[in-house]
């Protein structure tokens, strides 16, 4: 019996010791700050372009001669996580590994692996965490902006000291009422540097702050999507079309990067082709840099699509491996922005060619778009500035005699089909000839579409001025009636031209239907907005319900306008 008691007591002591050591090791890695203290220096920088950069420098001060923890947890508040587009850590020696660890109701936690092997004794150690946030800066007026941001770093342990500096753009102006005085102290005469010192900083802290500033030169650029279509013809010539879907606020020029050797460059927007004087081209071995001076009309729209057409030299991008096997290799260049949600790259091979290395890009989509033609598509998501995309490499098999034999093959097929049809189908008694039209008809159609877009913009601006009380009710009704009469006349003109174009050239039929649907969607949404405004004036709905419905109908109008812009760009490519 005594022996059993002794064994039991020994087992309990051993178990308790193991648990204590494990807990001590875990807490030494995570939350135990009895052996060290932490100071944080946070710099919040408002970047031109619409991003907010936060640099947090964490400094560890050792209290005893022990090893620093191997990693540190930093939280991103859940209400800001969807705005996070970039996260990276580094110390004075190397970049540090940072990875998502876990989440709870308030935070998403990232584990930063520290390289503390070179630190000994009571030496201090510091590392910096850089985070970039988007969509936290909104324009209030022509040159007035408001930014919101996470005020403090979020940690699982308390910090002895947190020093925060808010840095605004060089030309920004901030009034004394442009920031919370209870949070920040002004450090300069023009309020461009604001400071906050908190000691100690509690753990699990989630607090926000804001600043309002004026800056006529401040801009916001958000790239929603980049589409690149690479087309290789039967002679190996490479033609590329890039489409940039963007949101621009106060942007004078748009910079993009094309692959090295790009030539025959043409730039379009919804209105027309840009002249050579509006497109500055700078060539280097790393790429062709374009700077496009935007039209004033685009600066008012915010949502903008830019199309860039160019060719690439065959000898630089296509390698002939043997008699029938070719290799296409193209670098995926893109605008130098912090974040691009989606990039779509597609390759159209020559007629008669077939891909032979499909396993190289397992996530790619392969499809046949014509009888003898294949299409290859790759999609990239959530691309950050310093993320490198692997070059696009495709091996395909192609008979060089295809281009010469294709007309003969098609002629044989057509003759065969014609023979079958002549036997099976009796020719009609009356022959109808298609009506042809000149390129001027398409030009007139595009001008009418641009005129319609301009009238829509005027109606929207008039409504906004009326809501703000800048236009009397009687004048608003009169001007609205005049604009709607112009709109009806312009729309009738568009429909007449649409019918003419649609009946004569099949390639435009789908585009015409797309335009008609989009125009009808805009008209339906505008009528709904008028009805909602009436319900608000009569007290049938609340202000909150009114705002929600207006946002919904405005979104429909924006999506319909994007479809119209896309159709017009495609038509311009055909002219």
Descriptive overview:
With 575 residues, this protein is an alpha+beta fold. The chain folds into three domains: 32-214, Immunoglobulin-like (Sandwich), CATH 2.60.40.3650; 220-404, tricorn interacting facor f3 domain (Immunoglobulin-like, Sandwich); 439-574. It contains nine helices and 29 strands. The protein has helices spanning 2-29, 78-81, 296-301, 314-317, 402-424, 439-467, 473-504, 509-537, 543-574, and strands at residues 36-47, 51-62, 71-77, 84-91, 95-96, 98-103, 107-113, 125-133, 137-139, 144-150, 154-155, 161-167, 185-186, 193-198, 208-214, 220-232, 238-249, 253-258, 263-268, 279-284, 287-293, 303-312, 318-320, 325-330, 339-348, 354-355, 365-370, 373-384, 392-397. The strands form six sheets. An eight-stranded mixed β-sheet has the order 5-4-8-2-1-12-14-13, with no helix packed on it. Strands 19-22-17-16-25-28-27 form a seven-stranded mixed β-sheet. Helix 6 runs antiparallel to helix 9. It is globular, with a radius of gyration of 32 Å.
């Amino acid at each position: 019996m005594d022996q059993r008691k002794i064994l039991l007591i020994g087992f309990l002591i051993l178990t308790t010791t193991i648990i204590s050591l494990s807990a001590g090791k875990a807490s030494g890695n995570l939350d135990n700050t009895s052996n060290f203290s932490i100071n944080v220096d946070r710099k919040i920088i408002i970047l031109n372009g619409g991003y907010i950069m936060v640099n947090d420098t964490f400094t560890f001060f050792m209290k005893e001669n022990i090893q620093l923890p191997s990693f540190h947890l930093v939280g991103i508040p859940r209400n800001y996580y969807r705005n996070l587009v970039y996260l990276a850590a580094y110390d004075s020696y190397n970049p540090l590994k940072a990875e998502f660890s876990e989440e709870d109701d308030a935070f998403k936690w990232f584990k930063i692996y520290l390289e503390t092997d070179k630190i000994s004794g009571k030496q201090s150690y510091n590392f910096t965490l850089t985070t970039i946030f988007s969509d936290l800066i909104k324009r209030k007026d022509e040159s007035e902006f408001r930014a919101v941001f996470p005020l403090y770093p979020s940690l699982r342990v308390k910090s002895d000291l947190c020093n925060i500096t808010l840095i605004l753009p060089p030309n920004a102006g901030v009034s004394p009422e442009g920031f919370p005085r209870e949070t920040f102290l002004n450090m300069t005469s023009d309020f461009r540097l604001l400071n906050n010192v908190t000691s100690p900083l509690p753990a699990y802290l989630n607090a926000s702050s804001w600043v309002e500033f004026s800056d006529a030169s401040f801009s916001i650029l958000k790239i929603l999507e980049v589409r690149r279509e690479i087309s290789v013809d039967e002679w190996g010539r490479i033609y590329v079309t890039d489409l940039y879907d963007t949101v621009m606020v106060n942007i004078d020029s748009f910079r993009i990067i094309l692959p090295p050797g790009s030539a025959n460059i043409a730039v379009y927007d919804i209105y027309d082709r840009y002249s050579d004087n509006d497109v500055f081209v700078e060539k280097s071995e790393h790429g062709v840099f374009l700077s496009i001076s935007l039209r004033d009309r685009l600066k008012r729209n915010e949502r903008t699509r830019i199309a860039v057409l160019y060719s690439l030299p065959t000898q630089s991008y296509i390698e002939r491996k043997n008699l029938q096997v070719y290799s296409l290799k193209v670098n995926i260049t893109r605008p130098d922005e912090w974040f691009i949600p989606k990039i779509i790259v597609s390759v159209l091979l020559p007629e008669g060619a077939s891909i032979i290395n499909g396993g190289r890009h397992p996530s790619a989509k392969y499809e046949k778009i014509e009888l003898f033609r294949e299409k290859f598509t790759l999609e990239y998501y959530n691309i950050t500035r310093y993320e490198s995309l692997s070059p696009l490499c495709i091996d395909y098999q192609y008979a060089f005699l295809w281009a010469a034999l294709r007309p003969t093959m098609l002629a044989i097929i057509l003759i065969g089909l014609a023979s079958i049809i002549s036997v099976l189908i009796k020719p009609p008694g009356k022959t109808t000839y298609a009506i042809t039209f000149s390129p001027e008809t398409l030009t007139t159609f595009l001008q009418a579409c641009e005129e319609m877009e301009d009238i829509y913009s005027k109606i929207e601006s008039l409504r906004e001025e009326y809501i703000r009380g800048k236009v009397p009710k009687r004048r608003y009704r009169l001007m609205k009636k005049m604009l709607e009469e112009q709109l009806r006349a312009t729309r009738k003109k568009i429909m007449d031209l649409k019918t003419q174009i649609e009946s004569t050239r099949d390639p435009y039929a789908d585009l015409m239907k797309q335009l008609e649907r989009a125009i009808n969607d805009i008209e339906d949404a505008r009528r709904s907005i008028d009805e909602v405004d009436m319900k608000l004036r009569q007290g049938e709905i609340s202000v909150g319900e009114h705002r929600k419905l207006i946002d919904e109908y405005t979104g429909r109008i924006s999506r319909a306008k994007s479809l119209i812009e896309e159709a017009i760009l495609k038509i311009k490519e055909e002219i």
